Amino acid sequence: MVTLFYDSLCPLCVKEMRKLSRWDKNQQLILEDIHHSDFAARFPDVDPKAANRILHAKDSHGQMVYGLDATYAAWHAVGKGYWVSWLRWPVIAWFADQAYLFFARHRYRISALLTGQARCQQCQLK
User: What pTM did the predictor assign?
Assistant: First the structure.
């Protein structure tokens, strides 16, 4: 079981969460909105500001993982890890991490370019 802490204000992030939800046939992924009103009370060990800067997940071993490691954990949980596993290969991982950090920092602008919407008011997963 993997818990993924996502940004519900980001249209691209929500789009990926929808995709992961559809693929999660064995219910191995829990999606938690970092902007939910009770997030801090339910997850006192996860800083929502930090989780807003870089993707956070609690992997199947209960360890916190971040960035593309969190992405890989989520995709692996839904049986699609092979699609993104190459992003964790030596040498490629460093470049992929740099690209991810750029995306994370500019995701609202990138969302505006790709979807026409920079932010949404807590997009619905369904």
Answer: 0.93
